[in-house]
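Let's do one together. I've listed all components of the complex below, 525 residues spread over three lines.
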Amino acid sequence: MTDWSTFFAMGGYAAYVWPAYVISVVSLLAIAIASWNWMTRAERLASASKSAEGPTPETKL
Amino acid sequence: MPVLAYANPERFARLASSLTPWFLGSAIGLLLAGLFLGLFMAPPDYQQGDAARIMYVHVPAAWMSMFVYGCMALASAAAFIWKHPLADVAAKASAPVGCIFTALALITGMLWGKPMWGAWWVWDARLTSVLILFFMYLGYIVLWSAIEDPARAARAARILALVGAINIPIIKFSVDWWNTLHQGATVFRTDGPSITSSMLIPLLVMAVAYNVLYAALLLIRMRAEIAERRLRSIRLGLEFEPK
Amino acid sequence: MRTFFALIRRDVTLGIRASGGAALSAAFFALIVVLAPLGLGPDMATLKSASPGLFWIAALLATLLGLERIVQPDVEDGTLDLMRLSPLPLEFMALAKIIAHWLTSGLIITLLAPVLAPLLNLSLDAVPVLALSLLVGTPALSAIGAAAAALGASVQRGGMVLALLALPLNIPFLIFGSTAVAQAQTNTDPTQALTLLGACSLIAVVVGSIAAATSMRLNDD
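Okay, and this is what the predicted structure of the assembly comes out as:
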């Protein structure tokens, strides 16, 4: 395994390779996290509203 | 048909809940493996050097951009023909993910192009087709949010996805044709480096990783969509509840 | 059949009178042709090589401008509901609307372009091909536009949405049309480009009519 500075230099192409990888990982993480938050929030609200139904239903939130 | 057994959104949501951790976990694992293979283990290309490593994030993104649109088109067709209730949900949930893959294909393509061809952007057939696909995704997403009534939006989006799908071969053909006509003296090697197995394996691992990630995100987003619809119908039910 | 022609006649009349109608398409087309040299510089050689694409882009944008009047007004005043009750299938209604729209935009552009050709120094040999390519291609632009307009009919201020929907689908026509003209200018045979243009145009008119009709049915909740 070559040393770290050689690895980071990516044969001189570091300015291209690293942004490509970082942008890819960050973008996919971003949509994953956003989707996850959307889902948990929506599911939480939906089950909370459902349990709020009863003889005297009231609209939650 | 087993598919119809999951036409009930609640049943599907429960199935999706149990599947999500597996898909998400596999996606993360495969991604880490692919990144490791692509950045560390794969050899530099004899012509392009380490810049060829961009291929491991560019090509899978490009493949997914087209695959996801295909899924959207299939889902839209299923909604149209069989009126499967979750088909529209699947298409709607897929669109932003496909859009991001498309954007990544474009961005990583530009980052690969600059050191290789000396230009940030070239109007070669593949990049141009992907750019057009990006606009098609945008139009689809905008249409969903532009129409207020969800049922109508679903029907409109269906038509757009199907018309778009019919058009994709025509657009692809016309762009290829346009590109070969205008080929300059230099021929850009748009295929990237010639693939040896030490490069093929990281590429395939990343491709599978992206695929599994799409599946995971699809499940998550469909669950969110289903929950929102349940919420909407609960609220509507409560509004019209006789006092 | 009478309904078919009556609808064409009605839409053409409306198209001529309406503010977003025939006059606007013609004016916008001419405007782009006039602005191009101001933007690109007066060098005739540059303009000559750019002219095929410029004429076609101008045609595209001029068509885009008039899309909202195809369906939106009929939705708003309830005419669409009346049309749906007619014995004539909605697909033919859509085709009639496409023809009417073309008569008030594409046809005018086709007639105007040869007149404006000298402005961009388009070579004389290419002018007939320009006219032919526009004649064959603009119906497709109207058809795709009609389908997009029907999809976005209920959207408030939907102009941007229409453009976004129609744009990717219009690209093959831009490519084939402008290439045919460019080929004519360089004494290459434009037959292949024109044939492809014609074939795709035919497909577009058929698919566009069906898509527009299907989308018009969406307006019934």
